[in-house]
Design brief:
Helices cover about 35% and strands about 15% of the residues. Helix 1 packs parallel to helix 11 (about 280-300) and helix 5 packs across helix 7 (about 145-160). The relative contact order is 0.14. It folds into 2 domains: about 5-95 and about 280-300, Rossmann fold (3-Layer(aba) Sandwich); about 95-275, 3-Layer(aba) Sandwich (Rossmann fold). The chain contains 11 helices and 12 strands.
Length: about 325
């Protein structure tokens, strides 16, 4: 049996991470490409690809058996032909859980303590001493209890918070005080002082938070999103912010990225905007390389792969 041919798009991997993947590929014909176009020009020869495969290239990929995405959410690979095929898709899900949960805690603290007030005072060299709230005793409702949602629940507990989780099943989850399924969404929202979206964008989650949902939240509650934009309807979220249905928002993920300069979210009431880089850390990249190298080794050895994507669910 001939050695499997594995294409690797080096992307943002460091040279040492590329060497790490090469070291895991003993017995395979591993070829590294710096440019996507060069990889796709030879796609007919590949048994496996680490990186993206465009829809056009996939039509020529007759030998392809496995695609390893460099992303935690492999949205770019979920086109109909790939979904319908027998090609296994895996992701690096979980690589950014730690910094994403940290980012959420940062946004929650900034919103809770009205950090912009301190920043304005600093710019004006004005001593603005005031009594501010604390996270202790507040409730964080987490939509999606994957790696980042579970890490966030752990961090919330360190801040003495009550935690709620919304997921499809009643699967017990560490550090979550109460689980809700989607039929109890409004009850979940009404109990939360922070509603944090960690869920992937799928057919089931896109647009799941609209006017009725934001009106179900407390007027003192905050909305935080760091996974994917579009789970909240933009128009409803903007009205909720500007008309005071909710107290404010921390937005790292947006329905349109980059966020256009004329987007109303830049100036929305009590809103903190960050450019979808909550997980942009060296640790995130290294954990991705670790997953990729392990899966390359598993593929060659015929072992089960990690982070296999449910292509019907989209994650």
């Amino acid at each position: 049996m001939s050695s499997p041919v594995i294409f690797v798009h080096s992307g943002q991997a460091t040279p040492s991470q590329v060497e790490q993947i090469k070291a895991a590929a003993s017995g395979a014909d591993l070829r590294v490409f710096a440019k996507q176009a060069d990889l796709e020009a030879q796609i007919e020869e590949a048994d496996a690809v680490v990186g993206n495969v465009s829809r056009a290239a996939f039509a020529r990929a007759r030998k392809l058996r496995w695609v390893q995405s460099w992303a935690a959410g492999p949205d770019a690979l979920m086109y109909p032909e790939m979904v319908a095929s027998d090609v296994v898709v895996t992701s690096v899900k979980g690589n950014g859980a730690i910094p994403l949960a940290e980012h959420a805690m940062m946004l929650m603290l900034m919103l809770n303590r009205d950090y912009p007030r301190w920043w304005r005072a600093q710019q004006e060299r004005r001593w603005d001493h005031w009594n501010h709230p604390e996270l202790n005793g507040l409730t964080c409702g987490i939509i999606g209890l994957g790696h980042s949602g579970q890490d966030l629940a752990l961090k919330c507990k360190a801040f003495h918070m009550r935690t709620l989780g919304l997921r499809r099943t009643h699967q017990p989850t560490p550090n979550v005080d109460e689980l809700f399924t989607h039929d109890r969404l409004h009850e979940f929202l009404g109990q939360s002082d922070f509603v944090v979206v960690t869920a992937p964008r799928t057919r089931e989650t896109v647009g799941m938070l609209g006017e009725a949902e934001f009106r179900a939240m407390k007027p003192t509650a905050y909305y935080v999103c760091f996974s994917r934009g579009g789970i909240a309807e933009d128009a409803a979220l903007l009205r909720a912010l500007n008309e005071g249905w909710i107290a404010g928002a921390g937005l790292d993920a947006h329905s349109q990225e980059p966020l256009p300069p004329d987007s109303p979210f830049w100036t929305a009431r009590n809103t903190i905007v960050t450019p979808h880089n909550g997980a942009s850390t060296p640790g995130t990249r290294q954990r991705a390389a670790d997953i990729v190298a392990d899966n390359v080794r598993r593929f060659i050895a015929g072992e089960p792969l990690r982070n296999v994507v449910d292509k019907q669910a989209g994650y």
